[in-house]
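User: I'm curious what two different proteins look like when written out as structure tokens. Can you demonstrate?

Assistant: Sure. I'll show them one after the other, since each token string lines up with its own sequence. Here's the first protein:
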Amino acid sequence: MKKKEDFCRESNHFLKSLGLALCLVSFGGSAIYASSLYAQRTMLSIQMNDRTVEDVFEYIEKNSEFIFVYHGSNIDLHRKVNLDVRDQSVEIILDKLFSGTDIEYIINNRQIIVRRDTKKEDLPIANQQTKKVKITGVVKDAHGDPVIGANVVEKGTTNGTISDLDGNFSLDVSAGNVLMVSYVGFQEKEVPVGDKKVLQIVLDEDSKALEEVVVTALGITRSEKALGYATQKFKGDELEKVKGVNIATSLSGRISGMRVYNSTEFGVAPKIKLRGEEPLVVVDGVPTNQAFSDFNQDVIENITVLKGATASALYGSRGGNGAIMITTKKGGDKGFSIEVNTSNMFNAGQLKIPEVQTAYSAGSGGKFDNIDYVWGDKLDIGRVYTQWDPIKKEYREMELTSRGKNNFKNFLEFSMISNTTVSVSSSGKNGSIRTSLSYLYDKNQYPNSRKNKFWYNIGGELKLGNKASVEGSMNFTQESAPNTAGYGYGTGYMYNILLWTGPEYDLRDYKDYWLVPNEKQNWHYTDWYDNPYFEAYEKIKSINNFTTNGSLSFKYEILPWLKLQLRAGGVAYANNNVTRSSVGTISKGRGGWEDGALGYYKEGKKTGFTMNYDFFLLFNKKLSDFSVDGLLGGSLYYTKTKNLEASTKNGLSVPGFYSIKASVESPIVDAETKTKKVNSLFGTLTLGYKDTYYLEATGRNDWSSTLPSNDKSYFYPSVGVSIIPSNIISLPDWIPFWKLRGSWTVSKTDLAIYDLDRAYTIKQNVWDGLNTASYPDYLRGDVKPITNRTWEIGTGIHFLQGHRLKLDVSYFNKLTYNNTISQRISSATGYKSRLMNIDEEYVRRGVEISIDATPVQVRDFSWDVSLNLSTSKRYYAKLDENFSPDNLWTYVGARTDSYSYKGYDKDPDGNYIINTNGLMSRSQYSSLIGYTDPDLEYGLANVFKYKNFTLTLNFDGRIGGKSWSNTEFHMLETGAHPDTDNQWRYDEVVNGKKNYVGEGVKIVSGEVKYDQYGRITSDTRVFAPNDIETSYEDFVRSSHNNPDKLVQKKTFLKLREMSIGYNLPKKFISKLSMNSCYVGFIGQNLFVLTKDFRFSDPDGFEDIEGEDISSPSIRYVGVNLKVEF
């Protein structure tokens, strides 16, 4: 009880902050009402060339709540127009559409009434009958190149035309009138006709069309062209259609330089690496220790990825690896609305699933046995053995048959994913609010394996007069699962079913897994392995986790160019887990079940919170051609965690009674508390000149509690430069924008908690029931923080009119030094290890390319495509003569991701050497096998639109990189591998012939000598083709760990997601009181093509040992429905 009170007291500030945020946001919501501002705040993007006014009307109706009302005979609905607007209000769009015409519009609630301007209709007849003249002309840009498809309209009328391929046009107009000329990416221009018959019109580029903004560090929105570092962004609605278990999966291939490892195991979240490191996750400007995978798709407004330390330098050591910036929804601009978004997907088979031989039984030496291995007798040839009958629950004589050919597939169950969100939002002149409730149900393919997850979110913003505003958000998550165990070697179901048991039994007959309830299993493998159904229901690892995160910020405009912002945010969590196994458990010590057949129970609780407080002044001043902007501020970061575990010892006193009180001996109790505090001051200054040249400098100083008391301070500087050459030099008209950028930064990583502070390790019942306490680590106060020095250069180029093709390229170089290791020392010192810096240094270099294009955009059809390419590798920049590896593949300039192994001896021509027993000769020296990092990562996203239909296809994959196939390693060892079902095995088991001759050579005479690294110094050996016969079983078991076969390439191509959707017509859904309705067929993890890895999906393999008896990769298909009222 005391511990609970302590935790509540310590997190009191956090809870008060969240409570205040909730109160303010709720108060703001009560003051908000739907108003005519909906028109001003509904933002749309339209790109249309040579389309009619009617097409524009239809597009606005499909993508908003508006309905047009007009009299067709009075409006020229077939007038051709060109529009290119991005994130603009409907009012601005309509102003552009009707500019220079006699059309006016009135917005009444959700209706737009379009009509002719009555004042212009009442002009005197003399004016209406002004003499018409024929005008010809050409439209060009500032470089003298023709502008194709420019709108040329007689001002005040609907009379107009479009320029041709050479920029030429012809139009009959009233004498003395004015022409309005416009085109995508250019400023609209008024051209008086006068008495001219031929016009030369030059359009100036619209610089505002290039003004793309991104969310940068601390949640500050900045112009993308002013940044000296690489970023990528996309909208949250791109994640809302295919809603799987984890949002991170949908990021695969969407960001260049970001690698997502998607595990096939239940409950294991994808791992995200940005430029080879784990990035910081930031929500509404506040750093969080939550994983990106914890968030729900439907609450995300947009995501910006800041690549590298320069981009996130203002976050200090936590931002040294880049950051994922999440901006949550806070009401939007839709007035009052209710939205329901549900996605339901179902198992449609497996992409990869292990296959085993089904011709031979468990046992060894060709004889059936229930003890171990699957090198037993031939099945289905009439041979009879004493076997366990799971129905009668007794041993009896039975024929050895392959009745369990599909044991693993029969063990798997139907799986599905259901993800539903209901949200309510409202907006008005005083602010906006949004609240939502989400529910995820994940039914896994293994029995008793499912997850329930709830999210509650509320966020909003409130204006306090003309100068002040408050913004807040809160997210609550609850996640529970009855059993998360069951993967990997030793604990997974595949370990039992596929590797070490044979196909001579039908696993379904063992669903009744008790022979004696709560004491003894109904199972025939009684020495090592548990009944898989027993594992599913009696060997439990359950979770019940609660997480709350939120933030509250206050903004005040001191002067038009000077603003103050105060913000508090953080995370509080309570994670509860239970591990238990029944009396009668066979496999002891695997996966935490320590007491085997005696029963086991462990209960753990991990609680904690993290708080971030920051304040800063933001300034932005324009001085003639110069601009100055930046900020000055400070922050406080504090985190505390408590971990309490208690477990039984030497079994359960009462079978079936799971409680710490049921421990036979005094229970084992372990408790841990960790705290950390970092105080910071920071600032940034950006100088701009003529919106073309930008120089940014950033500095941050941290004082960390984990560093030595005499040297707690460390400083992070960074510099960034951005230049827009397209504003300086004359470029072809098909290159409207060009940017160059570069940056340099130094970032540091402070030490972990208790790396320098003495912390006791306490052990219970060491001597006759007595406990002991000791310091395991020798602590030194001269350890320096790990330091990274990073520089990067890049360029962004836009091609074609309308910027329909965009290319961005980055190169980065990151040097890491002052690395630390924990060195083991003599126990005579009274310690086990010490933390120290070493001289070894690394450098990571990489290239990132992203391409966004609209290859096709015609009437009723468009195709948008995004391609991301990246590669990065880490190399040794400096070696430590005492601690760096001593081998032939470790040197300055060598890659650090090498993998070496003691393989098998070969002759100079690469043939395997066979020893006198007919088996492969094992090498005594390690050799380089390959490298784990891929050579190239890629992602290709496609969006096709035809009228109301939308098709999305997202591909991603990797080329190169190697990993060890643990599945095939053990399948070969145990005799379960399908390749072991061959004639040699048949001859050995059925005919008694041990006639296998291994492929390779034998040594006839001579000898060989090696140096310490395994290089040949002298060789007099004479070889001959191998002709030594041996047992096939012995040969395979002795060489099952051959790295030439087991270290495989992780190359793959995957169809990650697909959706085919339809937006129901506005005229139909309006009768159902709907504003919009989208229905789509969706799929995730649909197809994979691999070079190697026959039985597992390399998507989730991070390092050389990434494949550890991986569970089958599931294909999901289903339906998405999104309705807005």
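Here's a second, unrelated protein for contrast:
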Amino acid sequence: MSSSPRAWFGFGKAKGVPVPASAAEETSDSFMDEKASENGNGNGNGTVAESMPSDAFPVTAEQLSELSNERTRGGLADLLEQALKGDLAGKSDVEAPLQSHIEIRALIDRMRATPDVPPAEHSPEALQLQEDGEAAANALTSFALRSSPETGLDPHPQNIQRRKELFGSNVVAAKKLDSFLKLCWEAVQDFVLIMLLVLGIISIAVETTIGLDPGESCGTCWIEGCAILTSVLIVVLVTASIDYVKQFAFVRLTNTLDETNTKSVIRAGAQINVVDADIVVGDVLSVNSHSLASIPADCVLLGPSAGHALKMDESTLTGESKLISKMPGDVILSGTSAVQGAGKMVVVAVGINSLAGKITARVYESEDHEGDELEGDEESPLFTKLTLIAKQIGIAGTMAAIVAFVASCIIGLPGEPRADLVDNLINYFITAITVLAVAVPEGLPLAVTLALAFSSNQMMKEQNLVKHLDACETMGCATTICTDKTGTLTANRMTARALYIAKNNCICSHPSVMLGDMVLKELTGGTEILEILVNLISINTMNETVLYFDDITQPSMITGSSGNPTEVALLHLVQELNFHYSDIRNKTRGRTDQGELADFLAEGKQIGFSSARKMMSWAVPKEGGGYRLYSKGAAEVILARCSEELSLSGTEPLVDESRKNIENVVETYARKGMRNLILAYRDLPADFDFEAKSTTVNNSDGTPALLSETDLVFTALVGIEDPLRPEVPDAIRKCYEAGIDVRLVTGDSPNTAVSIAYQAGILKPFHFKNNGINPDNPDEELEMVASNLKNNVLMEGKNFRAKVYHVNEDGGKEFDQTAFDKIWPYLRVLARSSPDDKLTLAHGLNQSALYMDKAECKRLKANDRITIFPDRQVIAMTGDGTNDAPALKRADIGFAMGIAGTQIAKDAADIILLDDNFASIVTAAKWGRNVYASIQKFLQFQLTVNISAVVTALVGAFAYQKSPLAAIQLLWVNLLMDSLASLALASEPPVDELLQKPPVNRSEHMITRRMWANMIGQASYQITVIMVLLFHGPEMFGLTPGHIVEKEEDKNSVHYTIIFNVFVWMQLFNEVNCRNLKGEFRVFKGIHKNPLFVGILLVTSVLQVIMVEFGSVAMHVAEGGLDGKYWAISLGFGAGSLPVQQIINIIYKYAVHYKTWRKNKRLHKYGHETTRLVQSNESSGRDAAHPH
């Protein structure tokens, strides 16, 4: 007979006379027979009562959902009461209750009698409370949810589907997408479009009524107004279509993210991964803080892993940062996070019935009612600059429109008949509003959206899943990347390559050599030691770390693995030593949940890994009584706690000489870039208190160590190699050329971190003393180890914290920005760091105003060759753990690992690296800079058109009281700019040259001097051509002096049609020029790599031909279009934009050289040091990135 809760029908033991396990099994069988009978599937004649839920579930989704509101043991007791009533519904009073009903009734009564005040820890009352909680959770699972705490659900599709129908699916209806009509309505709210709509209507009304002469028929007088309305309609439809498509793009992005959210569930006794949406009520989740951080549904804890308390972060719901310890029977809320411990929990509410689902639904409902979306973060640098530019252009456009209207009125109205007064005023007003419409950069939002959307889609193909669009362009401004080592710089293929055991040092010198073979060869007569080693590894590794085999009978045939990579490497070593880790686990009492020993699992004591302890332990019962505790962890931590060592002759004291030898081996392994782990054990008496704390040994964070994890027996030192990714050194080099600093933040030892950083290129010879040269022998390099680095280039986490935090008057720790600013310019590697160090680093770099201290920047440049970026640092941070989430959120751009990252890290990040590769971060930087460059290209194009169109309209207003370009023609040009040009220029792929210059200064104006030169030069050419055609075109080309084609009698006038055609073709050819921002002479370079640009250019050209040839009076062009001669003139002037750009480039180049020459000459004349010429972008980028 067993007293374990597992022995009593899966619920727990009741007070009073215990029921034997055999009786429980009998009861279970009779219970299931009765349920089958009630469903008509058994041999009995029972029927389901009308009040009984379908499929014999004694609870409803609504009752289960209430548990998340109650969240108390009383609430769980009430739910069991409802389940009991539901199960008994319809039964006659004379029927004897099942044994399970009796047990549940006793359990409910006992739970309700439990006081609300928590009992003292380890008291009999506390133990009873925990036992009752486990029994209640098991009863809820088996009795109410028809599942199994051990084997989970039956995975049959009908069972899963039925549960979804009864209890709901684990999805919350997405926020309702805006309809196309709503988006059209939002688009038409633009002030300029409203004005054009009003003027279009007025134009139709006036032209068809008072605008007609007596006896004159309307004919085509309505065309002007209708054309304006049509243009407005096109703009609205294009804008709404873009927004409509953008909505679906975000839906696809969300769906892609959801597909990465998988959880580990137990079905039919097997542990499998399913996406959140496939989790159903009754599923049993296997939880640990590494593989399952974010809880996907409301659950009840069945029990933590043996000796491993589960702690939850509920701050997302309660706002309290304190971690909450959970006992069996406690409610685990959806949206909260498991940050410590492991265990199993049963799902009780999903989707809309879960607490997180209810909150989400209320938020969406509130948004629908209010019509407002939640406020986002503050504007990014790009949007801040664009807002300023749009405001400045808007003001200039408004002034130009006012000038055009006033000038037209002053010059045109005095000589006009009174009957034409209203008509002329309307025409003048339409011209003024059209000038404003062309001047205002309405295409900017569209261009930004297209550039960001295009970049995010392309980045997805290059292993960057962008969650927030503005993260694209923010990454383009990044000045510092703080990166992890494992899996990011390295391949995350951990392999045990060295072992120090029983004073034998085995190091694999060649990749083809297996460590296990070396150990078996060297360690002759050490069978007992090897057994201790393999037991230590097999028992003290997480359940989620597993190896997969083609044939379980052939342990050497490993086909794959999952779980913690370091533990995978250790399990591989076990297999190489001709042992099988799962066999060891399954025959160890207190470690296995399989077979006859499963009932004794609770006798094991797991002490999970924590960053404070830097170790993990697992104690199991020992033959003959007591416990054996196995530990593994950071080499320096475990070694400091060892008092004995294991040798071929048994255990012996760990004397200073042996300790020094082990430390030397640790250094040797670290210099080879290996991660060092020490494995140790300790035997403990049966009555040992595992909660007892040491009075002499502290953890790395200063808290007292567990007494059980002291006085250990040193067993082995393992060197684990994780090779550097081959593409990383080149990626680091590109970062430095791009002016992006790279800092390594790792939990590894200093020498391991230095080895990897040097291989990767983060550390250079000049970071070492004497520039890496051995002062005793100039022909030799210094050994690249931590002790040879210059001051503050490398720091350990504890020293870093000690320097940047000081104790304030209240006795608390306070961040010292001044102290931080003295460290960070030198810092390249932060070893033995904690997640909090990442947060400190991100905060300190963000807040640093060192760039404003010109004297200090000058000193750093002169003495240490360190160039401080002349603006606030923009930080990119990588992370994979749950504890990294605050740092990822604090950084400007957070990168989470898509493979090794926890769900909480992914939720906190802006971009997810799908391949966990540092090179993908460099790709993100290139695409981010490309977004900025694409917007600059569009600005260069649009503002050139704006200047030309506004000046042309103003000249026309003064000379003829009407623009040479009709309102509909200017609107066509505007549409051309806003839609097609923005799409064409936004689709330009990034070039490597983007990473050969420093990041863009946040305070730097978006329109550079070079852009101004290009815009003014091209606008001057265009204005000159238009003015020549306007005033001298008739005599130059034999034209009849004309005017805009407005009426039937004007239909043969080609003068202004040529002006319109030339104007558009100059824009189209200049669009090719605008692909370049730096005055490149090869304007067609790379154009074949962007077929979309070529396609749009061709489409736009065809549309222009159609407009001119068939637009007639509607487009204010000559009927029948233009003949070949005039097309040649139009194309000739348009193509002239290309050589004009070459002239602009030459003039600008020599102007810059002349200015530099004059400056140097002036400085030399007054005795100052001669200033060297401006460095190349590449050199400048490297200088900004790191000290030379």
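A detail about the second structure: The first helix runs from residue 21 to 38.
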